[in-house]
Design brief:
Length: about 300
């Protein structure tokens, strides 16, 4: 596959289009980002990698972190996790409250905010030093020791995260939050604030393209069954109420965040990350969606 040529074409074709989008401003700190940033990084399972644009600039990974917290919670809690959070696509916006009431405090899946807050609660219960331990887990998966929380983003979200506070209180009222609401939210805001660039994101998610193991096979973090489940949840729930559209257009498991990042994996082939901050009305990076659609169209490869 001629990835250098394909990525060049993706970059040129996307830059030639006028794709509309709006930067997320509900977390004030996110509004400061340059809307013109656009980068992509792709690493194949044979270790070859290719990139363009702002692929080395860090951004707030936001909801992409929910895959990593879910993965750790699956390891720590096993199947008991699924008693507290379901695995069905939500078909509602990421921060919706309505569904939670209709379904008696059991969130539809771990990748919407309500589900991620339950997962955060599980991690707070299990970990001795939750924020520090989670950050170390992410560093281990990625192989990058310099990955950090962006404390300004975490603080900014804490000051304005009223809907998440509502969700957490709601969960608590249903008995689906064991720890103190403020402690769980503090963990959740920090996990969402992790900053990575496209290259680091790809390195972190490579395990999900590689059967749960690092590329050099020196360590396996997940069993094949866990890897299958994590990819399945990304496929069905990774794009808010646009998961069907992403599957239809791109055909890969992936996860987006309101910082404008998207990461996707093609099992046994590659992991890819793209970043462009302006979001479409469903909250996914407008250029990122289009770029990944072009990638799978040009390679002629998807999981379907
Ligand atoms: N921290 C963000 C929130 O809870 C994450 C949203 C996202 O990336 O979808 O609103």
């Amino acid at each position: 596959m001629n990835y250098p040529q394909i990525l060049k074409e993706v970059q040129e074709e996307i830059n030639a289009q006028q794709l509309e989008g709006k930067i997320a401003t509900y977390i004030p700190e996110l509004a400061k980002v340059n809307p013109d940033c656009f980068g992509m990084h792709l690493t194949c399972v044979d270790g070859q990698h290719f990139a363009f644009g702002d692929s080395k600039e860090r951004f707030s990974i936001q909801s992409i972190s929910k895959v990593l917290s879910m993965a750790l919670a699956m390891q720590l809690e096993g199947n008991n996790l699924w008693k507290r959070v379901d695995v069905e696509p939500s078909g509602t916006p990421f921060n919706s409250l309505i569904q939670l009431e209709n379904e008696n405090g059991i969130p539809r899946n771990p990748l919407i905010n309500a589900g991620a807050i339950v997962v955060a609660d599980v991690l707070v219960s299990h970990l001795d030093h939750p924020k520090e331990d989670f950050l170390n887990y992410v560093r281990q998966l990625s192989g990058h020791q310099m990955i950090h929380f962006d404390l300004k983003v975490a603080q900014s979200e804490a000051e304005t995260g009223f809907r998440n506070a509502a969700l957490a209180n709601f969960l608590k009222s249903y008995g689906n939050l064991q720890n103190d609401v403020d402690t769980v939210l503090d963990f959740y805001f920090h996990q969402c604030s992790i900053a990575m660039n496209c290259h680091e994101l790809v390195d972190t998610f490579m395990v999900f393209a590689n059967g749960g193991c690092l590329l050099d096979q020196s360590e396996c973090f997940f069993t094949l069954s866990q890897t299958k489940r994590i990819n399945a949840i990304m496929q069905t729930c990774g794009f808010y109420d646009e998961a069907g559209e992403f599957t239809f257009r791109v055909g890969l498991p992936g996860k987006s965040g309101v910082g404008g990042g998207i990461v996707a994996v093609h099992p046994q082939q590659y992991a890819v990350a793209v970043w462009s901050p302006p979001l479409n009305p469903k909250g996914n990076s407008a250029k990122g969606m289009a770029a990944l659609e072009l990638l799978t169209t040009k390679t002629g490869l998807s999981i379907f």
